[in-house]
Design brief:
The complex is a heterodimer. Chain A is about 0% helix and about 55% strand. Chain A is built from no helices and 11 strands. In chain A, strand 7 and strand 8 form a beta hairpin. By secondary structure, chain B is mainly β. Helices cover about 0% and strands about 55% of the residues of chain B. Chain B has no helices and 10 strands. In chain B, the strands form 2 sheets. A 5-stranded antiparallel sheet of chain B has the order 1-3-8-7-6, with no helix packed on it. In chain B, strands 2-10-9-4-5 form a 5-stranded mixed sheet, with no helix packed on it. In chain B, strand 4 and strand 5 form a beta hairpin. Chain B is globular. The chains are: A mainly beta, B mainly beta. At the A-B interface, strand 5, strand 9 and strand 10 of A face strand 4, strand 5 and strand 9 of B.
């Protein structure tokens, strides 16, 4: 069966510090991968998606970046965090080609920037 | 621009009643609409998918309708229980990149 792992689950970072969130998927090949952010009391905002290794599409311009070094690994990074980067970050995957587009989410990473 | 809109106000209902949540979309013609449940501090969990050629889809106490003329999907939970309390999200599926509405919080009172 397919599983998705996301870490760390919680982190507190000072403004200006770097960030790295990691997501891996098991039990599937060539998944579409997604990073979402959910600010407190807000909806899910799509940040990045990837349909293959090294292929990243950005939905929202910001100081975040994403990379996909391996087929089932998706990394969200920042060189310098802002207060506004605080939120709940969710990684998700869907089947290759997005036939149904059904998404499977990880448990999330809660980031607090102080 | 393409939009998915859900009622941002919480829906409060009494246990045993039917909850009805609304999802409206504009500037879209999605082949599918999906519904997810999200509990506090957790990732969303997929519930149901309905295709544009399906008027209605059922799964246990859940029912989803899809009206392409009104550009609307309705999500019903019959015989609601306090355990159904959560935020429910809709999203277009198919060839579109999955963007979500803000979700509607459902609170079922015992």
């Amino acid at each position: 069966s397919q599983t998705i792992h996301q870490w760390p689950a919680t982190l507190v970072q000072p403004v200006g510090s770097p960030l790295s969130l990691e997501c891996t998927v098991e039990g599937t090949s060539n998944p579409n991968l997604y990073w979402y952010r959910q600010a407190a009391g807000r909806g899910l905002q799509l940040l990045f998606y990837s349909v293959g290794i090294g292929q990243i599409s950005s939905e929202v311009p910001q100081n975040l970046s994403a990379s996909r070094p391996q087929d089932r690994q998706f990394i969200l990074s920042s060189k310098k965090l802002l207060l506004s980067d605080s939120g709940f970050y969710l990684c998700a995957w869907s089947g290759e080609g997005g036939v149904t587009g059904e998404l499977f989410f990880g448990e999330g990473s809660r980031l607090t920037v102080l | 621009s393409q939009k998915i809109e859900q009622n941002s106000e919480a829906l409060n209902i009494q246990e045993g009643k039917t909850a009805t949540l609304t999802c409206n979309y504009t500037n879209y013609s999605p082949a599918y609409l999906q519904w997810y449940r999200q509990d506090p501090g957790r990732g969303p969990v997929f519930l149901l998918l309905i295709r544009e050629n399906e008027k209605e889809k059922r799964k246990e106490r859940l029912k989803v309708t899809f009206d392409t003329t009104l550009k609307q999907s309705l999500f019903h939970i019959t015989a609601s229980q306090p355990a159904d309390s959560a935020t429910y999200l809709c999203a277009p599926g198919g060839s579109y990149i999955p963007t979500f509405g803000r979700g509607t919080s459902l609170i079922v009172h015992p």
